[in-house]
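Marked as duplicate of an earlier ticket. Keeping the data here for the record.
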Amino acid sequence: MRIKTGNLAIEAPIKETGAIKRRKGSKKLYVDFYYFGQRITRSTDLDDTPTNERKVRGFLNRITERIEEGTFKFAEAFPGASDQEKAHFTQKEGREYRPEPHQVLFGDYTKEWMKTIYPSFGSPTKRNDYREAIETRILPYFKNFTFYQLTGTTVFKFTESLVRLKGKDNGKQLSTARKVNLLIPFRAIWNDACDHYR
């Protein structure tokens, strides 16, 4: 920041807050600062060198500046933080946390869906059918996919991989009707996720 005094312009010292640390047993630099009264300690994945320390100090100074201006966004600054942490700080910032499709794992969302939405299905038969399809077919295949990776081609490959798992027809392709039935809970999860994250 420049301060003008008469004909002279001088650089005002940058306010430095937070600390740059190295944890015992690690060669990486960590940032350590407070946000909404909570201590934040995060690895930068940068080795402890003078050059990297200057980079991290610049990063911390920008964080401080944005916090003071009210423009700091925790979720953008720390994309690797947990969804709970991002949601917590985004709410504190007065915004709603809406991760992008490439940030939401199908498996993580489905586990939450099973706790919150699945129990609301009235019919025990429907609940049992959904649970079986999700636990034996859908989750094992899709759990590590992000919603961004779920395309028509991905779903087609899934349906083509569906075979009988036991009995005399073990290993044979499932019927088209059975494949369609397995996609019903998948579609329900997909639609609820689209609605939840807008």
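See parent ticket for discussion. The chain is about 50% helix and 15% strand.
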